[in-house]
Design a protein that fits this description.
alpha+beta; elongated
Length: 118
């Protein structure tokens, strides 16, 4: 009698609980793998914007566009072009959005704002 009472009182994670946790981890990992490249490209855009701000005369719009487009071709930046840049008070910035499809008809809208300001 003592052994059956002990077995019934045991607590712990069930197989179904473990499957739910694994499914949640896989789902979050899938979202991370889909959204990750957009954030990596944002870092490349931010570095290119800072490089432009530090290397050319910001009053020359054509030089700013050319320098950014050169950096964009090297860093494989496809979401922003040099003509999208805004130069205001010695600060180069660009705002853009990326829509990342997650699954079926669900997608994530990511807003980015890259600036050369410190």
């Amino acid at each position: 009698m003592h052994q059956t009472n002990q077995i019934n009182n045991q607590k712990g994670g069930s197989f179904i609980g473990m499957l739910i946790v694994i499914a949640a981890i896989v789902f979050l990992g899938m979202i991370g793998l889909k959204v990750g490249p957009a954030y990596l490209e944002y870092m490349n855009v931010k570095n290119a914007v800072k490089k432009v701000a530090n290397s050319v005369d910001l009053t020359d719009k054509k030089a700013v566009i050319t320098q950014f487009n050169n950096s964009a071709s090297v860093d494989n930046i496809t979401v922003v072009k040099g003509s999208d840049l805004v130069v205001n008070g010695g600060v180069v910035s660009v705002e853009y959005q990326v829509v990342v499809p997650i699954m079926a008809n669900a997608s994530a809208l990511l807003n980015f704002n890259a600036t050369s300001a410190k």
